Amino acid sequence: MNEVVMQPRLVDAEAATAEALKPNWNWDRAIPAPGHMNVDFETRVDFRRLQRYRLARAREALERSDLGALLLFDVNNIRYVSSTKIGEWERDKLCRFSLLARGKEPVVWDFGSAAVHHRLYCDWLDPANCRAGMLGMRGTVPPSAGLMKRHAAEIMSLLREAGVDKMPVGVDLAETAMFFELQQAGMKVVDGQQVMLDAREIKNIDEVVLLNQAAAMVDGTYHMIWEELKPGVRENDIVAKANELLYSMGSDDVEAINAISGERCNPHPHNFTDRMFRPGDQAFFDILQSYQGYRTCYYRTFNVGRATPVQHDAYKKCRHWLDSAIALIKPGVSTDKVAAVWPKAEEFGFPDELSAFGLQFGHGLGLALHERPIISRLVSMEAPMEIKTGMVFALETYCPATDGYSAARIEEEVVVTDKGCKVISLFPAEDLPIANRY
User: Fold this and answer.
1) Quick check: pTM over 0.70?
2) 8 A C-beta contact, residue 259 and residue 280
3) Is the backbone of residue 348 left (phi > 0), alpha (psi -120 to 50) or beta?
4) What would the pLDDT profile of 263-295 be if each residue is shown by its tens digit?
5) Apex CA 344: angle with CA 342 and CA 350, to 5°?
6) How far, in Å, CA of 414 to CA of 333, rounded?
7) DSSP readout, 194-232?
8) How many other CB atoms are found less than 10 A from the CB of residue 148?
């Protein structure tokens, strides 16, 4: 196959953002969850529009900052600006990186032959900007080998070419040795993650549809769990079945599944074991997976066969706290107002907000599990953020039961619309679900 020859082209950030944010969906209708294929007979996800939108958002955020460029090692940021991905293998290797300089197209350094693959199949990128790169894979190749030094010099050369070499460069995360090499090469390194989080906080309709499709996959997984949850089955059995089902439905990464039951419910351990479910157990699950990179965080609580009055009470309180937060979600509301309807840490058995962090909690969803906004009494009361149309985030609450060990945990994913919000996590959770009721 011959390589596609492309001329470098600049994206008009303002025009691309305006196009992608046009009111192209009637929020009075349900958000689509159209399936895993694009087709010729209806409009589904427009991936080219998605690519243009994400790059334009990153450019706008860069222009609003005092930075000359963004140097990105976080794989979610690399995907956001370049629409490249080489599999979940990449996530913890710190072996890929991308440069977005003012007025220039993104440059991507990728692992070995992946760069050649991009030149052939990623025709939205300038082939000359798809480069092979290798830094050290978390220090396994020591800095003394010179790879980091060589790439630092290469990056500085590109910054000079763009005329921004005297300006600060925003870096999201990197190996410590790479920071040193960048500074040695003459770069003024500052925090670039905040700029990228600014860019990523507002989703366009294509991102919303992908997040909704990911949530639909978890809807189905919870129906399977509701059918399978019975005495003798273990937490890890449910985790295995959920992984199998999600990958069969098209998941590209099942990041983690929490499965917590019985006496393990309080305090919340955030894991799973080989514990067997027993009659009357309260059990809750969290499914973290992604479709086309867009992630879910989606808790549900069940009881096995039957439930006690105190377990029902814990569930009702947990649901009330969650519903009180959802009722407040609309554009212009600040996150401290949402956090204020949740109980203080001392009111549900914890000594302080740091110890209880993540139990009464909200967090943005997108290419990463945690984006903006973060909603918590730990941070939101002193540093509130504004909720905006186009944000997508999860709200999760937790209530321990008075029996000392049971607990309820519920989470809903919401899309902020121009009028309020829409819940996209649809497995029934208004009342405590009893699996295989006796």
Assistant:
1) yes
2) no
3) alpha
4) 999 999 999 999 999 999 999 999 999 999 999
5) 125
6) 15
7) HHHHHHHTS--HHHHHHHHHHHHHHHHHHHHHHHH--TT
8) 25
